[in-house]
Amino acid sequence: MPWVVACVTLVGLGAAIIIDALASQYRTDALLIVAWVVATGSSTAVGLVLATRRSDNPIGWLLLANGLIIAAMGLSGSYAAYAVLAQPGALPDGTWALLFSERGWPILFVA
Predict the structure, then answer these.
(1) 51 near 60, Cβ under 8 Å?
(2) Closest CA to 72 of 2, 21, 10
(3) Total-model pTM
């Protein structure tokens, strides 16, 4: 199960980077993207190591959840920038992604 969570997180990370590149003039600053990738990758990597080696320890699972949440927040921001600003109507439910991106930040503190 830890590998599934890590793979879903990495797929979300890759999708967010691709969608952000498609958003052209509305894309996020490169330094912010690097910080976001480092935060997501480090939390997921450490969580994966802990969850596979010591599955009874909740810290590994919390770090995996944190990486998944950070990836989801970044994906929603990139999705919203593309679906609402760059190409309005090109992707479905861009307003929901915008709502999650702007108002979902308390979820970061759950894990």
Answers:
(1) yes
(2) 10
(3) 0.84
Over the Cα atoms of the chain, what is R_g?
Answer: 15
Cα atoms found within 13 Å of the Cα of residue 54, Cβ hemisphere only: 9
Question: Could you tell me how far CA 10 lies from the centroid of its own chain?
Answer: 8
Give 25-83 pLDDT, tens digit per residue.
Answer: 777 677 888 898 999 999 999 999 999 999 888 999 999 999 999 999 988 888 888 88
Asked if 75 and 16 touch (Cβ cutoff 8 Å), the reply is: yes
| 56 phi, psi to nearest 5 deg | -80, -10
pLDDT of 8 strictly over 80: yes
Tell me which residue has tokens 């909740």: 58
Q: What share of the chain is helix, strand, coil (3-state, %, to 5)?
A: 85, 0, 15
Dihedral over alpha carbons 53, 68, 43, 17 (to 10 degrees): 130
**Tokens encoding 23:** 């958003």
Domain assignments of the chain as residue spans, ordered by start:
2-109
